[in-house]
Backbone:
């Protein structure tokens, strides 16, 4: 079956522009996570959705970052007025159940480069 | 906030040598998961440990969860070149999110 799909796979944008990253989770997975991974670094938690609601937004780095999920499925992560420090790989993951007690299935990520 | 520390950050071994990475949490974890990320790839789930003192094996990989549920380890016996990658632990404090360690990057000299 299909895995987690993220688009675009690569995005180059100019500083100050807005970008939108998309995640299509595995069908039926109720939990969805966004992480950020800078080059050679670990995974930084951004936000978690259970269904369409986001009980934990604590990881969003600033108010330039926002995310939504609709229909309990597709999620978009929006970064407004991008900065060079936003350059990273943005990883989306889904899992069948919430409460972080089931394995996360990751997408291939979106590599964002801010010039 | 919750932190999950992982050491070492890097490990280079000769093929056939053993490898161990350690994970420590500042708080008690309800479970711990381990992931492997190949170079250029995304993290892939390896295993989940839930019980205090639990030990699980997958071929040459041995995973342990500490008695206090604050630490964990992954040991690879007789490494092979296919083991190259970064190994991450991830802990759940019951906060509905998985906090990842910084990862241990394993490189192997054939």
Residues:
């Amino acid at each position: 079956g299909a895995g987690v799909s993220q688009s675009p796979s690569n995005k180059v944008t100019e500083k100050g522009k807005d970008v939108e990253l998309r995640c299509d989770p595995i069908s039926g997975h109720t939990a969805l996570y966004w992480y950020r991974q800078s080059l050679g670094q670990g995974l930084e938690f951004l936000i978690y959705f259970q269904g369409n609601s986001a009980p934990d937004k604590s990881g969003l780095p600033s108010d330039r970052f926002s995310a939504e999920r609709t229909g309990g499925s597709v999620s978009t992560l929006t970064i407004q007025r991008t900065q060079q420090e936003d350059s990273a790989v943005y990883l989306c993951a889904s899992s069948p159940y919430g409460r972080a007690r089931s394995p996360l299935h990751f997408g291939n990520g979106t590599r964002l480069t801010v010039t | 906030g919750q932190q999950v520390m992982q050491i070492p950050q890097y490990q280079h071994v000769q093929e056939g040598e053993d490898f161990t990475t350690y994970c420590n949490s500042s708080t008690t974890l309800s479970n711990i998961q381990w992931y492997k990320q190949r170079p250029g790839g995304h993290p892939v789930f390896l295993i989940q440990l839930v019980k205090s003192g639990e030990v699980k094996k997958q071929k040459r990989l041995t995973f342990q969860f500490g008695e206090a549920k604050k630490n964990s380890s992954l040991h690879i016996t007789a490494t092979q070149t296919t083991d190259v990658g970064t190994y991450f632990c991830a802990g759940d404090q019951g906060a509905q999110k998985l906090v990842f360690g910084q990862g241990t990057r394993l490189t192997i000299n054939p």
User: Anything to note?
Assistant: Chain B touches chain A through 27 residues (CB under 8 Å).
